[in-house]
Write a structure and sequence with these properties.
- The chain is mainly alpha-helical and 191 residues long.
- It has eight helices and two strands, in the order ααααααααββ.
- The protein has helices at residues 12-30, 34-39, 46-57, 63-75, 83-100, 108-128, 135-142, 150-170; strands at residues 179-181, 187-189.
- The mean pLDDT is 86.
């Protein structure tokens, strides 16, 4: 909630406000790196410090940062990462994206619809960035009448990763040939 600074700080309410403000100022200054905290020392209220930090570091509305995050999301592929490491990278980028470029809708129906649209796009991105060895499982998810939720897609792909690793472990190792042809055209045992 919001608490307004009282005009008379000598009253009981004013003294309570001063104590709370001191606690919040201390918490804010101790929550940032020392150089940032030192740059805030001239500000006397937690509201001033919060406004300065929010303006300088929130990223909200920073078009260059939004473009950078969108580019990272677009380019991200699983590569050599495990499914969960890939998911963690995506989720961190999505959190940054939500912070810098939040979807601003104002009625309940639009908010719900907007969240569903974002969720579908995120499932599609997750599936699109997976390694080719997951193509069969991805195809089975995409041929359903509706997309799975992000949690269902993650679960399906981590299960597929386990299945693929077990399948790979079961493959027989084929030994190298034990005979070779010498320069004179004779067979010789190479063991």
């Amino acid at each position: 909630g919001m608490v307004y600074e009282p005009t008379d700080k000598t009253t009981a309410e004013g003294k309570r406000w001063k104590v709370m403000n001191s606690i919040l100022v201390g918490w804010l200054l101790n929550s940032v790196v020392p150089s940032t905290g030192r740059s805030m020392e001239g500000q006397s209220t937690s509201a001033e410090i919060w406004k300065t930090l929010s303006t300088q570091y929130s990223g909200k509305g920073n078009v260059m940062l939004i473009a950078q995050i969108d580019g990272k999301i677009h380019r991200l592929r699983q590569g050599e990462m495990s499914v969960m490491a890939y998911v963690a990278e995506l989720q961190a980028l999505w959190a940054d994206q939500d912070n810098c470029d939040p979807l601003e809708l104002y009625d309940a129906a639009s908010i719900e619809s907007g969240h569903k649209w974002i969720a579908r796009r995120r499932v599609l991105k997750l599936l699109d960035g997976l390694d080719r060895r997951f193509d069969g499982r991805k195809a089975s998810l995409m041929h359903q009448t509706s997309l799975p939720t992000i949690d269902e897609a993650i679960a399906a792909m981590t299960q597929e990763e386990v299945r693929l690793s077990l399948e790979k472990a079961d493959e027989k190792v084929v030994s190298a040939p034990t005979f070779a042809i010498t320069e004179r055209g004779e067979w010789r045992d190479t063991r």
